[in-house]
Amino acid sequence: VSDEIKFNYDIADIAECESYLLEEMKFYLVVYHPYQVLIDINQQIKLAKPSLQAAWSIINDSFRTDLILVYPPHVIALASLFLSRVVDQGDLSELEAQQWFADLNVDVTDILQAVNDLIALYGIWKSYVESKMPNLVSGFISELAAVFQLEMDAYEESGFPEIKAIFLAQFHTDLGPIVRLSYPEDAVEVGEQKSFAEISSNKSDEYQHHQYQRPSDSVANREIRGFSSYNGEEAPVEVIQLIKRPVAAAIKPESNRIDFNSIQTLVIPKLTLFERLITVHTGKYKVMCYPVAVEGNYVRNALIFNMCFAFGIDADTKCYEPVVKRVGCLLKELEIGGRLLSDPEGQRPLKTMMRQLVTKLNAHGEYQIELDLKGLSQSMVSTGISIRLFPHHDNPSEINLYDVPVRKMDFEAARTKSSSSEFQSKVANEAVWDMVLDKVIHCIDNVNHVRRIARLAQIQEDWVILALKHLDYFGCINLVDIFQFGNIYESQHQMMGLYRSARLQRECFSYVTRDGKAGDIAMDALIQMYLTMRNRQTVAQWIVEQKLDLDRFDVRRFIMFGVMHRLLRRIHCYPVICGPPSLHSEEESDSSTAGANGIKTFETKAKTEVEAVRVVAETGTSTEESRSQSQRPAQVAPIPSVPKTLDSQFLHMLDGTHHMDEISVLLDKDIATLKDIFSDYGGIEYVYH
């Protein structure tokens, strides 16, 4: 590189990257090159010297790419041989060369991909200008940073909480519970160490014990013998929540260290809680552990220990439950087979394991390392640990016919390239062969409700609900209500999450604006709009009040984003029968065009009938008998007043438990028509909740 071109990197930066590369390769530096494969191929097909030289040169050029890190040596050798045919045809004819490549037991797709990468390299060399290199490198680094940010966002969405610290607690025969090791080393505050007798007699260290027991058996009724498992069977995952009551803290309140003295009697608990997952809330931390006891030739006939994982107080630690349990069981097996915990020489591999658990699980969500147990056990020289975090999926929520599924991923793109989640990729692959799932996915447009999707796809509603539950379980869709401009929403306290999360703000902005460009809408303005949704205004009234420009602002997506992230809550309208129905005449019901004159005529006739009844009651003679025969009008039959009726399908939904969206979808009537029907019937009130 000429002196005029300056890079922002020096030899120290390159050396640092080399260290990262060596660590990723686990310091295994035996690398197989494609040259030997090319020599073996030449011995079989006897390449011409120009062809062999061209292929050899192409292999040299391949080391300027990442092919050697992506494909095995034989693929690169075959790719170089394929390209060398362009330079020199050699002794093989075109048909013979095609047949030779077809007979290979190699994936042709990999060979062609390697060929394309090499062709791209030569294309770059053809247009290479040395003065443009710094800008190209800067742009490449910016792209890498963007990809890294996307991966970090996907990692945050996966729900894996960060491990703040990890420490090994052990029961000491003289001092009681102690912290033997911790990572970071200053993560746990032990304070003044007391004797076991003093700790046992301390009654101020109380806690609330919330236990989720098996339905058929309780802890109190189980027979516990020593440290053996219950009933000799593997117990299901059972988490015991232990919430500390406020006590006199041994460390300062503003300290970020874990107060071990306040939880030591819970980390090393009584025998009834051994080999069970325990979660202890203390200060700013949530400590999850799995206490274990190993019987044997020890001072008190058992070694009691507990590997504890500390998280933030608000962390969702469900995905770590199998990890904590597995680590506890693994340490138990290593103690039985190799005396890992009781032997002082085991402190070195324990420190390595604890450090790797924190760094690897926080960075990658998986952990694989080999522990060197030389000198600890003759039968176990080394052992491997493989741990991986998997997202915890709750059971899918109940899906109703009036719910609207909203896509959280592009299913078409997920079929051709890797998705942000392997579970979402799994769903995309299943849609290829599952006809029901494929039809349902094609009908999801973020507007259609479940019943309409079933009709468009011509599939039974129960099957559609099962397919949507499958998508909901793997986080591929969200469920929202039917959007209408007459809906009412109000903002929620989760708005603070939108203030704090830059990622959520970017997602909101790109989702709500029509073109994803800033224009005249600022992020602060979007947040303020969410806060103005109150006072029981409909969406239409809110739009008029805010004077929104609908050409660059999608109101439906704005509302949908707020509902999906719980920034907004829908206020539903529940019709309830609160009184008798209104009365009407049969004649009035038969004439749909009767107006105010008809109503007055009906009232006049009713008054005449009432007056006639009063005269007969007082005189015993009707008014008609006192009139002359010529003046007597023709008698008119009385028009009875009857209540309006509703179908039974309406009546059973007017008990206050069914909102208007549900009634509208189930009865196939729009909300305006329903309100007209309820208004004509009378005696129906609306409850908003």
UniProtKB/TrEMBL annotation:
Signal sequence range: none
Organism encoding this protein: Coemansia asiatica
Single Gene Ontology BP annotation: positive regulation of autophagy
Region (Disordered): 617-641
InterPro entries: Cyclin-like_sf (IPR036915), NPR2-like (IPR009348)
Gene behind this protein: NPR2
Homology family: Belongs to the NPR2 family.
Name of protein: Nitrogen permease regulator 2
Pfam families (alphabetical): NPR2
Transmembrane portions of the chain: none
